[in-house]
Design a protein that fits this description.
Rossmann fold; binds guanosine-5'-diphosphate; alpha+beta; binds magnesium ion; eight-stranded antiparallel beta sheet; elongated; six-stranded mixed beta sheet
Length: about 475
């Protein structure tokens, strides 16, 4: 059952409660469950902390937070030092006021068998004691507001609920501490960073395949942070901030070539993967499905220059007519800007879905890098280490998963280096976790090819395009 609680209101309530992240679950709604004290008690008794919200016909929103549970006891007051009343909107306009229970007050909550949620002596907020039916969607609750146990900052009921308890809705939510992290990982520390670094550094394609590097392709809208991710990864392994890829904000893609970055390590030598940076996706311009297809298949030479007005000339002498497994892409990462996920134009989303379909048909594994997590949550901006505790980032990860139909465990929150002058453990760990998964997937992909070859398929081309794919292509359902 979902209610009317918006993200902004949840955030405000969490700030007022002041004891960390919270989960809100709707327990009771008068429009869904019917309005009666008995139903309220049946749904809300002994459920821990709750918040009650009322929405009246003058478009005012107000209510109360009880840190103690409700009970069906006949007529007694209890002390609840953490309880407070509040107003969120007044006559349709945001008005944020918290009215705390007065110090040492023994009457924070009122437990009454025949009462709906009731706060304070007298009472400061009495919701209802009857079972009104609704007329035109409006419930004429017989409650009232009157300052006594709570500090109402000198405001009378007329300034909080317009002096009216005629409500369109009353909701009670259970308020719980949320699990500390939305994704469990080993404890973040220098040792974890070092062990991830060494695991990523040790990964290389199986010797029998005679391929030196995994190719990881970054695909995503212009400005999503593809080039910045290449810089972040080179910085991690160079032990200093690097700026090999040119990044920045512009209307169209700054990156216009296919650039497979090799990653040098400080001690010398290169790692056995290449991060392949490309031109970004745009509504009208940008990389298209045919170019993407050639990229995945390894037809485009390194440093291929994408052009805005012409496609790929397959007769060009540089076009790789017979790509080997080493030229092909072994894992794709879709790069999405977490801060502007809601603003992505539908055409760009559709293009990305087409690219994803194409990858799936070629059995190329996929992950998502959800960048700019520092712009999703201020707390994460000040400490990247808190990213797995951020509800906002957790929600964006879910959104990204739904957007592309990719499981949540394949969505990696990323903070790229953009203004920093020094490395950061959290930034490095996020990038390394993502890389480790992409390399594992690239390895799985190659292993599958190896296995197929072992079963005497002519070559990996048959793996790349199975019979059903060819039929699908012939019928034009790409
Ligand atoms: N705050 C913040 N900015 C970022 C992050 N990643 C990239 N940027 C900025 O976003 C802009 C576009 O990045 P860029 O890497 O050029 O995107 P590309 O078009 O996908 O290659 C640049 O101004 C970057 O500095 C990030 O994680 N956090
Ligand atoms: Mg770029």
């Amino acid at each position: 059952m979902t209610g009317n609680l918006t993200k902004a209101v949840r955030k405000q309530l969490v700030a007022w409660i002041g004891t960390g992240s919270k989960k809100f679950t709707l327990l009771y709604s008068i429009t869904k469950d019917g309005c009666s004290p008995q139903t309220f008690h049946q749904k809300c008794d002994m459920k821990g902390a709750t918040v009650t919200l009322l929405y009246n016909e003058q478009k005012s929103v107000f209510g109360g937070y009880a840190s103690l549970p409700w009970f069906s006891i006949g007529g007694s007051h209890v002390r609840d030092d953490a309880a407070f009343l509040f107003q969120l909107r007044f006559s349709g306009v945001n008005r944020l006021n918290k009215f705390p229970v007065k110090p040492d007050n023994a009457s924070g909550l009122y437990y009454g068998l025949d009462y709906g949620p009731t706060f304070g002596k007298g009472h400061d907020l009495l919701t209802f004691t009857n079972s009104p039916s609704s007329s035109n969607g409006i419930y004429a609750l017989n409650g009232s507001m009157s300052a006594s146990s709570y500090d109402m900052k000198g405001l009378g009921a007329e300034h909080i609920n317009n002096g009216s308890m005629k409500c369109l809705e009353l909701e009670v939510y259970k308020v719980e501490d949320i699990p500390q992290q939305w994704r469990k990982t080993s404890k973040w520390c220098k040792e974890l960073e070092e062990s991830l670094k060494s695991s990523v550094s040790s990964m290389r394609p199986a010797r029998e395949l005679k391929v030196s590097d995994f190719r990881l392709l970054l695909l995503g809208p212009v400005g999503s942070g593809k080039s910045s991710f290449c810089n972040t990864v080179t910085s991690v392994f160079q032990d200093r901030i690097t700026q090999r890829a040119i990044c920045g904000k512009a209307a169209h893609s700054i990156t216009s070539v296919y650039h497979p970055y090799t990653i040098k390590v400080r001690s010398g030598g290169c790692l056995n993967f290449r991060l392949c940076d490309t031109r970004g996706l745009e509504e009208e311009l940008g990389i298209d499905l045919i170019q993407c297809n050639h990229l995945l298949d390894g037809n485009l030479p390194e440093f291929f220059q994408f052009s805005a007005d012409s496609g790929v000339d397959t007769n060009d002498s540089l076009f790789v007519q017979e790509p080997t497994l080493a030229d092909k892409i072994h894992c794709v990462a879709f790069v999405l800007d977490g801060a502007t996920l809601d603003e992505l134009p539908q055409r760009v989303i559709d293009k990305m879905k087409d690219f994803r379909k194409l990858c799936t048909r070629k059995h190329i594994p996929q992950a998502v890098l959800l960048t700019k997590v520092d712009l999703i949550d201020d707390v994460v901006a000040s400490s990247v280490n808190s990213v797995l505790e951020s509800i906002d980032v957790g929600e964006k990860v879910q959104e990204a998963a739904e957007l592309l139909g990719i499981p949540e465990y394949n969505i990696h929150p990323i903070k790229n280096y953009n203004t920093e002058v020094e490395l950061d453990e959290g930034v490095n760990i996020l990038a390394l976790h993502a890389l480790q998964q992409m390399l594992n997937y690239a390895e799985d992909f190659m292993e599958n090819i190896q296995q197929r070859e072992g079963k005497s398929l002519r070559n990996y081309e048959e793996y790349y395009m199975s019979e059903s794919d060819v039929i699908e292509e012939k019928t034009g359902t790409l």
